[in-house]
TrEMBL record:
Residues 7-87 form the RimM N-terminal domain. GO terms for cellular component: cytoplasm; ribosome. Keywords: Chaperone, Cytoplasm, Ribosome biogenesis, rRNA processing. It comes from Acetivibrio ethanolgignens. This is Ribosome maturation factor RimM. The keyword Glycoprotein does not apply. An accessory protein needed during the final step in the assembly of 30S ribosomal subunit, possibly for assembly of the head region. Essential for efficient processing of 16S rRNA. May be needed both before and after RbfA during the maturation of 16S rRNA. It has affinity for free ribosomal 30S subunits but not for 70S ribosomes. Binds ribosomal protein uS19. The keyword rRNA processing applies. The gene is rimM. Pfam families: PRC_RimM (PF24986), RimM (PF01782).
Amino acid sequence: MENYLRVGVISSTHGIGGEVKVFPTTDDSQRFKKLKKVLLDTGKEYLELEVERVRFFKQMVIVKFKDYNNINDIEKYKGKDLLVTRENAVPLADNEYFIYDIIGALVETEDGKALGTLTEVLTTGANDVYVVKLPSGKEVLLPVIDDCVKEIDTEHKKVLVHLMPGLLEEEN
């Protein structure tokens, strides 16, 4: 899975002509306009699907795949992931990264102490929040702001943080 990035999940069929509603898992759902092919993770194999047309409805993307012209052809894929290869991923700007690339990263404090492992990234309205699992099994939530997250090294899977007062519960 490391060479693939999830761009959406088929949530349901749309009409009887083989279209599907896709919940986008990418920051920019408009990227679907440029997609020519996606990989469908069936759970057993990856099927390469050619995108025939794309339109948008509320927060969903309506996708029609070539050669899937009937609801019965596509219905079995509800809940399945749509993936792209890293080569077909949206180009990243400087200091941007894919969330997938930092999950499992070692989180260290500025003084070199290992804090824990980054297990999840929560996207909120204001800023993302890193969920870090401590060796004790507890979790700490770190806001992804300049005062807290100092450096992200995707190559070595390390995140350097400054622990602001009140972020870490004091153990008794």
